[in-house]
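Students often ask why inverse folding is considered easier than folding. One informal answer: many sequences map to the same fold, so there is more than one right answer. In these notes we will look at a single instance of the problem. The structure comes first.
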């Protein structure tokens, strides 16, 4: 009888572990609203009104470290360790992508589960898309695509993203380095990267987009987070900045 119970428990544990998504780290992606809006497509404010002039969360995205090649894989091994990268190396082939997505389409976001976070989410995770103007739809999509692969409960997924954003205020960090929103000033890519590294203690990846006149502007900052979604780490992979030159703008919002 005891043997049978032990077998059932072991089988249950194996079943749970097989469901868990095996990824290496999270990207906490934050976007500058001025750069989102200062494009030919423009933007729309959410139903809660114009967001604050500060970086807003785009999402918390599970990612694989094995997507790199050559130097990228060496960097991933140095940051995460050879065992971790080797353990998760099979995940890329399984889904054929550099990240897991849409892991449980039946697990829709419940407003009740995040009810105590709504005010903070409205401030820190607003939508600027003109598709709906309702931030809850934005959060629901991010949860469905990325959150269902995070191995986190709905509340933890959003709460941990908010906690890291609050702990490292990118807008204040850049301002402390003299990098402030302006319609005329330009800043070097390296100065932005160095300011974030010094202000947070960790390297991040940067992404540019182009304004209506074709000028490069800082669009998104990709901070890397451990698999529990609790602590920043140095980004184990580099990524293209999409910047047309070393100089970029941080437009007013």
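Output (designed amino acids):
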């Amino acid at each position: 009888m005891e043997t049978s119970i032990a077998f059932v428990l072991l089988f249950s544990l194996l079943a749970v572990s097989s469901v868990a998504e095996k990824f290496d780290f999270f990207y906490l992606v934050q976007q500058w609203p001025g750069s989102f809006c200062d494009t030919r497509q423009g933007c729309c404010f959410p139903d809660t009104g114009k967001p604050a002039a500060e970086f807003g969360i785009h999402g918390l995205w599970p990612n694989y470290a094995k997507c790199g090649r050559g130097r990228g894989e060496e960097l991933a091994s140095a940051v995460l360790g050879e065992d971790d990268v080797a353990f998760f190396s099979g995940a890329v082939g399984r889904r054929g992508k550099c990240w897991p997505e849409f892991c449980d389409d039946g697990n829709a976001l419940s407003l009740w589960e995040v009810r105590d976070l709504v005010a903070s989410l409205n401030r820190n995770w607003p939508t600027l898309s003109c598709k709906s103007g309702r931030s809850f739809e934005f959060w629901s999509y991010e949860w469905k695509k990325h959150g269902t692969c995070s191995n986190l409960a709905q509340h933890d997924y959003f709460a941990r993203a908010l906690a890291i954003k609050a702990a490292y205020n990118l807008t204040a960090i850049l301002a402390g380095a003299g990098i402030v929103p302006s319609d005329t000033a330009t800043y070097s890519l390296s100065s932005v990267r160095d300011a974030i590294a010094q202000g947070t203690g960790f390297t991040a990846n940067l992404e540019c987009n182009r304004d209506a006149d074709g000028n490069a502007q800082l669009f998104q900052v990709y901070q890397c987070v451990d698999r529990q979604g609790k602590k920043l780490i140095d980004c184990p992979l580099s990524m293209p900045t999409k910047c047309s030159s070393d100089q970029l703008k941080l437009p007013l919002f």
